[in-house]
TrEMBL record:
A Pfam match: Glycolipid_bind
Official protein name in the record: Glycolipid-binding domain-containing protein
Domain of life according to the entry: Bacteria
Lineage, opening ranks: Bacteria, Bacillati, Actinomycetota, Actinomycetes, Streptosporangiales
Length: 194
């Protein structure tokens, strides 16, 4: 069974590989959950962009809502995703049935959001589970269903490790988490900076 310390007041990641940039988040305790306010600024394929987000997490780190703004030289876009906590979603107030069964939001622009399923699933060493997510693209905030899979490995030097897979992106890597269940190293994408 997974057990994590409370999240820190703030955390930050340096994005490298796929993009160059930085992500900073701030955590607030709420009745029964957490609010996460964050911002990623990056350059990817020669284009600079900014994604601001506010994510409300209910009990067990299940995503309840995500409010996002994306800005680049090409456009500015805003969306609101809302979940009933049982796998049903609304996008800007309209039903989003393609997301049925998803309990997490996963932002393309964020290393933080890989913490949500790890907290929610409470996997013991050797256990594995699917974790489909409402995946939000960085540039245009398009929302897709993302099939993901997490498998818990033995801890390494007191740090939890998971094999992560997102087949549609041909991604399979090992993620390492700190005592609060936040990603320390996402190979090819980000490393924890603070």
């Amino acid at each position: 069974m997974t057990s994590f310390a409370p999240p820190p007041g703030t955390a930050a990641w340096r994005h490298l590989g796929v993009r160059t940039g930085f992500e900073v988040v701030r955590f607030h305790a709420t009745p029964g959950g957490h609010r996460v306010e964050g911002c990623t600024t990056a350059v990817e394929e020669g284009e600079a962009w900014i994604v601001d987000y506010v994510i409300d997490l209910g009990p067990g780190w299940v995503t309840r809502s995500a409010r996002l703004t994306s800005r680049s030289a090409r456009s500015e876009r805003h969306i609101v995703l809302e979940s009933d906590g049982a796998g049903h979603w609304r996008l800007d107030g309209a039903p989003a049935p393609w997301l049925d069964g998803c309990l997490d939001v996963d932002l393309e622009s964020s290393a933080l959001t890989n913490a949500f399923p790890v907290h929610r699933l409470h996997l013991g060493v050797g256990a594995a589970a699917p974790a489909p997510a409402a995946f939000v693209r960085a540039a245009d905030l398009a929302v897709e269903r993302l099939e993901q899979h997490y498998a818990r490995l033995p801890d390494d030097d007191g740090r939890q490790r998971y094999d992560y897979a997102a087949p549609v992106f041909d991604v399979a890597c090992r993620l390492t988490y700190d005592e609060s269940g936040l990603v320390l190293d996402y190979p090819g994408l980000a490393v924890r900076a603070a």
